[in-house]
Specification:
By secondary structure, this protein is an all-beta fold. Helices cover 0% and strands 53% of the residues. Strand 8 and strand 9 form a beta hairpin.
């Protein structure tokens, strides 16, 4: 995941560590240690001062980026915690777990705010809606979640209600991302498709097919014009959101690609793979600029 400044990138893995890297030089600047299991997901706070991590040790940790110090350990999930995300204002963390729950936590004191329940199997991802001028009233205080029950759920943060359950995928959903306009989401699934949905009415606007394997991660570029996806077949693919055309395939990893992230300026892609590397790519020409060994 890229730091909001674009100057740093963070990685995590089964070595129980989080590493922070300088994007330009490729040097590892800090190693954060404290989890007692695989670190499965990490995310920077919107102001870039904190990083949150989730692990199969069933905990979430909050770290200071500048010092590398763990300032809070959030406990309560009964199984692996497989995603962690900050709200747009940085005040709340959402975590999702194999225990089928989504938990909301207060960043300032670590208190649990709410438990969102309704999924019937593992919840792989829970993401806050962005705050956007183009969004209809009320968008920005919602969460979209997805998982192994093949459904997407839209939740109201204020009261914890499930507003909508969206169905269409025929296998588990690994990844979900909001379009910058806050009105659409994209999902990647084991059914070998990427789908783009209208969250207002739950309709599938587009199904991108032609894959021969699982789609592990999806991310829109910051301008919303392209969609980047990570694949079981060791590749990263770039799509045009409006024309639905496949623009480019990035090859270089030796194992399945599990995650993709976009630089804040939209010009760089970072991909993380089971091969233990993070690759930084130029989105304009598909060139691999750096390979970092986690």
């Amino acid at each position: 995941i890229f730091h909001p400044s674009g100057k740093f990138i963070a990685s995590c893995g089964d070595d129980q560590l989080i590493k922070i890297w300088d994007v330009r030089s490729g040097k590892c600047l800090k190693v954060l240690s404290g989890h007692n299991g695989w670190v499965l997901r990490i995310n920077f706070s919107p102001d870039g001062k904190l990083i949150a991590s989730s692990s199969n040790d069933k905990s979430i940790r909050i770290w200071e980026v500048e010092t590398g110090r763990c300032i809070r350990v959030l406990q309560g999930h009964q199984d692996w915690v497989v995603s962690v995300n900050f709200s747009p204002d940085g005040k709340i963390i959402a975590s999702s777990s194999f225990d089928r729950d989504i938990r909301l936590w207060q960043v300032s004191n670590g208190d649990r705010i709410k438990i969102l329940q309704g999924h019937t199997f593992w919840v792989w991802t829970a993401v806050f809606s962005p705050v956007s001028a183009a969004s209809p009233k009320g968008i920005g205080n919602q969460i979209a979640s997805a998982g192994s029950d093949k459904t997407i759920k839209i939740w109201d943060i204020s009261d914890g209600r499930c507003l909508k359950t969206i169905k269409g995928h025929t296998n588990q959903i690994w990844s979900l991302t909001y379009h910058p306009d806050g009105q659409r989401i994209a999902t990647g699934s084991d059914d070998q498709t990427v789908r783009i949905w209208d969250i207002t009415d739950g309709k599938c606007l587009q199904t991108i097919q032609g894959y021969t394997n699982s789609v592990k991660s999806v991310q829109f570029t910051p301008n919303g014009k392209q969609l980047v996806s990570a694949h079981q077949d060791r590749t990263v693919k770039i799509w045009d959101v409006f024309s639905h055309q496949h623009l480019c395939t990035l090859k270089g990893h030796d194992s399945p690609v599990l995650s993709v992230a976009l630089h804040p300026n939209g010009e760089l892609i970072a991909s993380g793979s089971e091969d233990g590397t993070i690759k930084i790519w130029d989105i304009r020409n598909g060139e691999c600029l750096k390979t970092l060994e986690h």
